Automatic annotation (TrEMBL):
<dbReference type="InterPro" id="IPR038109">
    <property type="entry name" value="DNA_bind_recomb_sf"/>
</dbReference>
<dbReference type="Pfam" id="PF13408">
    <property type="entry name" value="Zn_ribbon_recom"/>
</dbReference>
<feature type="domain" description="Recombinase">
    <location>
        <begin position="158"/>
        <end position="284"/>
    </location>
</feature>
<dbReference type="InterPro" id="IPR050639">
    <property type="entry name" value="SSR_resolvase"/>
</dbReference>
<dbReference type="GO" id="GO:0000150">
    <property type="term" value="F:DNA strand exchange activity"/>
</dbReference>
<dbReference type="InterPro" id="IPR036162">
    <property type="entry name" value="Resolvase-like_N_sf"/>
</dbReference>
<dbReference type="Pfam" id="PF00239">
    <property type="entry name" value="Resolvase"/>
</dbReference>
<dbReference type="InterPro" id="IPR025827">
    <property type="entry name" value="Zn_ribbon_recom_dom"/>
</dbReference>
<feature type="domain" description="Resolvase/invertase-type recombinase catalytic">
    <location>
        <begin position="6"/>
        <end position="151"/>
    </location>
</feature>
<keyword id="KW-0175">Coiled coil</keyword>
<dbReference type="InterPro" id="IPR006119">
    <property type="entry name" value="Resolv_N"/>
</dbReference>
<dbReference type="Pfam" id="PF07508">
    <property type="entry name" value="Recombinase"/>
</dbReference>
<dbReference type="InterPro" id="IPR011109">
    <property type="entry name" value="DNA_bind_recombinase_dom"/>
</dbReference>
<protein>
    <submittedName>
        <fullName>Recombinase family protein</fullName>
    </submittedName>
</protein>
<dbReference type="GO" id="GO:0003677">
    <property type="term" value="F:DNA binding"/>
</dbReference>
<feature type="coiled-coil region">
    <location>
        <begin position="413"/>
        <end position="440"/>
    </location>
</feature>
Amino acid sequence: MTEKKKAVIYARYSSDNQREESIDAQVRAIEDYAKKNNIEILKTYADRAKSATSDKRPQFQQMIKDSALGIFDIVIVHKLDRFSRDKYDSVSYKRKLKANGIRLISVTENLDGSPESVILESVIEGMAEYYSKNLAREVMKGMKENALQCKHLGGLPPLGYDVDANKNYVTNEAEAEIVRKIFDMYINGYGYSEIIDYCNNKGYKTKMGNSFGKNSIYSILDNEKYSGVYVFNKSSKKDAFGRRNSHSSKDESEMIKKDGGMPAIITKEVFQKAKEMMAVRKKAPGANKAKEMYLLTGLIYCGHCGSAMQGNRRKPKDKPKYVSYRCGCRVQKRGCDNKEIRKEYVEEFVLTELEKNILNDKAVPILVEKINKHIEEQSKHEKESTETMIRELNEVRKQIDNIVVAITNGFYQSEFKAKMEELEERKSRLELSIKEIEVKNNIPSITEEQVKNMFAMFKGYVLERNIPECKKFIQSYVHKVIVYKDRVEVIFNVAFNFLQEKDVVSIRASARKKTLFKICRNIA
Ligand SMILES: [Zn+2]
């Protein structure tokens, strides 16, 4: 008899999304699955998030940490989007698990880890991302309405302000004093650490009730609201992979700014002065040192000793820069004599082969069929949960009506106000969740053309050698790149097993190191 596989459960629940299965329901489904598949569950990690957008997941982080201990072989989730709703995150965490020899299983999505499911998975993830972007757009619409009236849009107001019953900002005098002091110290030349010390010695707390740190001071000095300007949508947008692009400033048209839209705590002059000083101090030496983007990080290994290879950049004086991958063993001075390999040579080789071997149209029909089957199953599931939510929404509406009628008839009770607020909040949450599902279900089946377009887009990035874009999808297709002393080999995930009768083979391509520079020259 084979030994039982050991697994842990990861479950997540965000209270602002009511159509989600509760943690208990997720765990039950996973335990069922484990029983059927002869898997032993060792532990359950569960995060209850206040909001789906805030991604602090202490238990998740703990699980990733524990995955290095070698105690379990499998992480089981109920649905893939419990693991992550963001492709970039998902790929990098999955890599971490994989590096520790651990498999991720989704109970409802039935992905088995075969190369084709790896690709299917990446497409599903891409779609989840599309959904959440759509949802964000819907939410944004509602928020904009409120923003135009300079209302507080949820969360904690900044230090120095409270929010009244109509969601308008009002000054909190005691806190405003702290804010003024911070600006005052800064424009008089005090550094962050002096300001932090001052505040903490005085026993001041941030709005969250914490001690002050560099970030909290910075976000105060950077907040235009203190000068009486209501600002909405100030932080720059996240890109499709969830990273904030902090360099591009927000498109002015998407930003709502109203001078005098909220009570001022400091003058415009003080804010301006602080802003200028921050800009000057930021320009510290070395700040603009160029960073390289390494396409193959996490994928490239030394064929001589098996270590992972790492990106390395040198810039000798008076010589052009030299960027390479080197054996991790060598970096730690533990005697592997495999030579480093020029970054552009090996990346060029991988991209050329990727285009030739994987991004072709033969795979498309099979992929499309699989995706559509998946969509169908999902939407059946969604439909059921919408029905429940609509029933609940009607109930909430009825209760609201009842209170209104009671008040109109002169039966006013002080509890009504709190009850009403609670009902209104539930109502808008439900409406939002229903809307989310509508958006999701509005997506028709995927067509071959769409997938072809997706591949064509990838191909375009490959041909342009757009490394940042390529990096986003390459991990779905490239299994491993191995650098031997004399040659380089790349192993791709085979999209589909139509190539052979049964077993899934991986496509390998290899080239002698000495010839690699020629590939580069051909392209150039
Ligand atoms: Zn090595």
